[in-house]
Amino acid sequence: MVFVSTPSLFSNTRSSSSVPYREEHGNAMIVRAHPLSVARANDNVNVQGARGSGLEPRIGLEFDSADDAREFYSVYATHVGFKTRTGQLYRSRTDGSVASRRFVCSKEGFQLSSRTGCPAFIRVQRKDSGKWVVDQIHKDHNHELGDVEESRPPILPQRTPTGRKSSAKVSSKSKLKLLAEVDGGQPCLSGSISFKRVKTGGDGGQPKAEPYAGLVFSSTDEAYHFYIRYADEAGFKTRIGQLFRSKNDGSITSRRLVCSKEGFQHPSRVGCRAFMRIKRQDSGTWMVDRLQKDHNHDLEPRTRTNMKNSTASKKFVGGVNGGLDTLNLSEINNGARPICSQGNNIGSEWYHLLLDYCQSKQAKDTGFFYLVEVDNGICMSVFWADGRSRFACSQFGDAIVVDTSYRKTNYVVPFATFVGVNHHKQPVLLGCALIANESKESFIWLFQTWLRAMSGCRPKSIIADQDMAIQQAIAHVFPGTRHRFSTWQIREKERENLRSMPNEFKYEYEKCIYDSQTNADFNTMWNALVNKYGLKENVWLKEMYEKRESWVPLYLRGTFFAGIPINESMESIFGIFLNAETPLGEFIPRYEQGLEQRREEERKEDFNCSNLQALLQTKEPIEEQCRRLYTPNVFQIFQKELLQCYNYLGIKTYEEGSIIRYSVRRCGNDSEKLTVTFSASNLNVSCSCQMFESEGVLCRHVLRVFILLNMREIPSRYLLHRWTRNAEHGIACDFDPGVSCQELKSLMVWSLRETACKYIESGTSSLAKYRLACEIMREGAKKVCRQG
């Protein structure tokens, strides 16, 4: 490690192992010292009090690496009397490498009550030589300084739970709670931290736990550990249920611990009523005041041997739900970048902010889900989705975009989103994440977590980047899902690789990509192109040809992408409000603002859908049918196809039994010729353009044939429920026959809950509307009861 400073730096250590020498650069003189025996403050560094010595950071101070700079600042901080943290990093727009790094006082910011917004920091910038130089500095603090000992960043403990005494009061000092095992394919609970390689031992021979009314615990932590132990012995799993807060000060007054099969939010849940409620007493203890032991499903008691074997091999999740003692995040990733098996691009300060946010949201939204990946005790990736996003996925999760375009910029935070397309053709949020690194394992965790949050709702197609790690993760988690490469990344690589090519090549390249109608056409044109310009061995072109089925329009026909254009990038769902360069202090407010604007736009479209009607432009009955069913934006697409169909001629070319085949071509353009096949027996129809398969709306060629056949109504199978006005309120129309009753019930619960939320919002806007809403609900309840 090399420190570069003024001649006074380490002036007391000048010896054969620390020899200063001079270098002159213009008018500036740099004095370098190489203290071979000096590494860390806790290695008995013989340095005078920093305030009066040469151990002072200054502009121009040079280091071999950013880690050296961090260690130097930690030494300085220890002697001055404060602690440090690793602050923001800034990346190069050229290659994405780290270009500069901030090291700050531990009291910088306001995310925790212990922080005071201290402005003290140093920033080091990487030079072309590879050295790191201090280019910004602020030494003044806004709090008192004192003697501190340098401490290394601690990590989450990985200890084996020890045996408990027979008392109901379970000893537990760790702030981390082991909550419940995650089965291989089962959805995990909302609000948790998932662990890798955390091993636990046996039960230590504890006596059997048995809850009863009046049982007292010293904390919610003890109560939950007790209930887990009881559940293990009885043969069921647990979750954290509702919490109740004081109207006076907002503190938690009671908490429900429930069977994991309580409710209907996931297909695995059966509405089990077993629970234990604990209530806070004036003395500060917690007492069981309500209890239900009976379950409505089979239990699977486990022997001690089974418990040892299973707990030693399974992953565990740790709860950070509001209502349990708050997770001590000062023990997670504090200070410098954590040491973990894969690296982490998320600053430690982000975890405090996000987990506080997720806990507060979950207290208000019972459908809110979040999960934190933990690797060897270190927090890694974070995923979250609110109840509305999870419900939207049940309707619009058939085609999704995984937006990791943060990598295009000099990002501060690796913020990614899962986005779908709703029935108004608007982007709809299906989940968010901070991605710790870009490894295959990180993306596998992310996709598996999203799948759990969405109750196993697998998309038909995913639009995501073409990085090998993402390709492998999608193939692993979504084996039957079609992966289409992101347009922005394709364009980026085209700009980079076509820059040196002649304009003629660019023209022929685009003609090959977008004008090919068959596989043979594409192969012929591609081979002619690379041979003509001598590019058969071009690495980029060879790779793109091998992956042609994931980006060339010809090969993507027939896969449903909800009408997301192949040659255009989908706009960011957060628009100007949020991006990968948004600073920590502004992230949550901007996130909320951007999300609210999107949902306000959706509410406006809902209003327009209910109150406005498009004008008919033909006398065809199918136009009136689609105007009645489709949302205005989707009807506009259909109407355009209907009007265009009058420019085409349909000629019957084949008929055998009930099967009829038509050749449909554009008037005056023989080159645009499509084939439409129609079955009179079951009203099945298909077109070689495959627009319906890709967008879910019938094309002009099929509509031309329907008009020739004088069809007055489009078969219901060609009117996708996801594009209709009632897409958010009905769920049974587009379900596969194999969907279980439990899955259907879960989605009905979500659908009714979402409708009820909108109903409540409207019904509480005035006293008159409230009275009307109550009357409607009473009448509705009577009708529902009569139906039963």
TrEMBL record:
Membrane among keywords: no
Compartment annotation: Nucleus
Pfam families: FAR1 (PF03101), MULE (PF10551), SWIM (PF04434)
Gene Ontology molecular-function annotations: zinc ion binding
Residue ranges of the region described as Disordered: 147-171
Family: Belongs to the FHY3/FAR1 family.
Protein name as catalogued: Protein FAR1-RELATED SEQUENCE
Organism: Salix koriyanagi
Lineage, highest ranks first: Eukaryota, Viridiplantae, Streptophyta, Embryophyta, Tracheophyta
